[in-house]
Design goal:
- The protein is an alpha/beta fold and about 300 residues long.
- It has one domain (about 5-10, about 40-65, about 75-90, about 120-305): UDP-N-acetylmuramoyl-L-alanine:D-glutamate ligase, CATH 3.40.1190.
- Helices cover about 35% and strands about 25% of the residues.
- It is built from ten helices and 13 strands.
- It has helices at about 40-50, 65-80, 120-125, 125-130, 145-155, 185-195, 200-210, 250-265, 270-285, 295-305; strands at about 5-10, 10-20, 35-40, 55-65, 80-85, 90-100, 105-115, 135-140, 160-165, 180, 215-220, 225-230, 235-240.
- The strands form two sheets. Strands 5-4-1-8-9-10-11-12-13 form a nine-stranded mixed β-sheet, sandwiched between helices.
- Helix 2 (about 65-80) links the parallel strand 4 and strand 5 (about 80-85).
- Helix 1 (about 40-50) packs across helix 8 (about 250-265).
- It is globular and about 60 Å long.
Length: about 300
Amino acid sequence: MSAPIVILGVFVADTAYRADRMPKMGETIMGNSFKLGPGGKGSNQSVAAAKAGGDVRMITRLGKDAFADIALATWSEAGVVPEIEQTEDSYTGAAYIFIEESTGNNAIIISPGAAGTIDVPFVERQADLIRGASVFMTQLEQPMPAAVRALEIAREGSGVTILNPAPAAELPEGMLALCDYVTPNESEAESITGLPVSTVEEAQAAAEILLARGAKAAIITLGEKGALYHDATRSEHVPPFSAGSVVETTGAGDAFNGAFAAALAEGMDPVDAVRFGCACAAISVTRPGTAPSMPARAEIDALLAG
């Protein structure tokens, strides 16, 4: 048995409300639709990695409630093995998402609940699992000290480390030096480096800064322009794939990161792994939702072969 992919991250239940407008304080209005589904970057990435063929362990904290049941059911269906703690002292994370019907614009409130209590001692209780990973990946939705400590522990093993620096935040000194790969999107890369990122050339300049700050390789996802892979010896622009009409782009970054991790765990060349991630993301955006939109391995292989 090869070593697993281990992901530290957050699960939240997405509660999405569509209405013509946002209510004023003290006002009640009628909505047009409601949808409840699984969310959270770490959780979405674990589903994407598992469906892409990876042996995945998901590390997080949940409450003991109906939203925790959604998390466990989502992971079970995708083949993700939960390595979690559940507490009655807090609740499973949730997100309120208001969507304006006419424009599709949204406003979001995230309450991480139990996942907001992920701390260094929690991470250290999972040290053997993290240290033994073939690929370890985390993001910035749980508290920063936990992410840093998990990367430090992963570095003690022989596996690959990935930081998806989302949502954008100021990174502590030395954090990027713990990363074999850092995978920001355009806005996250701009936030971290202070440089504009709207073209491949601008992405290369930002990637150079990420390498100078310690990352071994930077992968900047560029939406409809594909992705840039950049390390000390090569820089390659991977063009986007088209898998059909775009329905929803919300989970595209998570699809990319999960599939990229799965490809690396199989020993793919990193540029080929970026291509694999781009194919997964291209399929995911043709479907609604985040975790439910993640494609099966056979679908990704078929798009790559086409």
